[in-house]
Amino acid sequence: MTDLWPSLVALIGARHPGFLATAEGVERAELARWEARFGLTLPRIYVDLMRTMGRSSGDFNPLGQYEHRLDPLAEHWAWMAEEEPAPYPRDRFFLVGFEPDPSAISPFELFLDLSRGDGVDAALVEMGSNGVYEADARHDLGQTLGELLAEQILTSFELSAWPERSGLLIFGDEPRLPSIKSEVVQQLRDLGGSLLPPDLAGVTCLRLAGTSVLVSLEARLGCVAVAIAGNTREDVAALQNRLRASWPRSTPRSMSGDRAHR
């Protein structure tokens, strides 16, 4: 999806017009230098992210809990480029985020898995830091970088625009989760919801009268997550109850905070 990042930037601009003027990106040449050093090509969505907010993104963290800024990342890249033997296949995995809290217990680092990419986007995996990168220490997020960015941006700039928030977790067998997501999205469209771009395999957002709804695959939790935000508590509760009535294997989910801010 070549227009993934432009559609996310357009959403930010529509909901928070002043934000992009405060973000600071990095030069493409800086990223190209690291591509050459590792002998790889970074997916377009990552390049676009870093060119837009790779040096500073204010209080918005596009990778959730992970530090994404170039200056601290480059220190890790320099070590990884020189370490011999290579701690992991350097032409396959590329570090894009790390736990910023040095006191964190069992921290993880976030990598692109370029073997599962198409030049535009790529899958994400977590690996334990402290020098542990063996295959059995890798955890597939079940999400691409584009899907993570879409989820974070939609949560922070679309859902947070409404005063009331709630959510729902719909459980199912893993092979069935994508079809559950599709059915929930169709259910919301039948209720008058209109799709917001980007509409991705793992993340879809819709606007209804007085509410916005984010529907996300959460493969690691074995569920589809539905985040509902709206003008009034009654509107949010009514939609949540309507969905719960359709999905017996569901449970309410607290949406008291904004995961995209720190």
- Biggest β-sheet, characterized? 6 strands, antiparallel
Number of strands: 10
Work out the helicity level. 25-40%
Low-confidence stretches: 257-262
Task: Describe the protein.
- The chain has eight helices and ten strands.
- It has two domains: 4-148, 3-Layer(aba) Sandwich (SMI1/KNR4-like), CATH 3.40.1580; 162-253, TATA-Binding Protein (2-Layer Sandwich), CATH 3.30.310.180.
- Helix 1 runs parallel beside helix 6.
- It has helices spanning 4-15, 19-22, 28-38, 44-53, 70-82, 145-158, 177-190, 233-246, and strands at residues 93-98, 108-117, 122-128, 138-144, 164-171, 194-196, 203-208, 211-218, 223-230, 250-253.
- With 262 residues, the chain is an alpha+beta fold.
- The model is unreliable at 257-262 (pLDDT under 50).
- It is globular.
- The strands form two sheets. A six-stranded antiparallel sheet has the order 6-7-8-9-5-10, sandwiched between helices. Strands 1-2-3-4 form a four-stranded antiparallel sheet.
Main features:
single chain; 262 residues; alpha+beta; SMI1/KNR4-like; TATA-Binding Protein; six-stranded antiparallel β-sheet; four-stranded antiparallel β-sheet; 8 helices; 35% helix
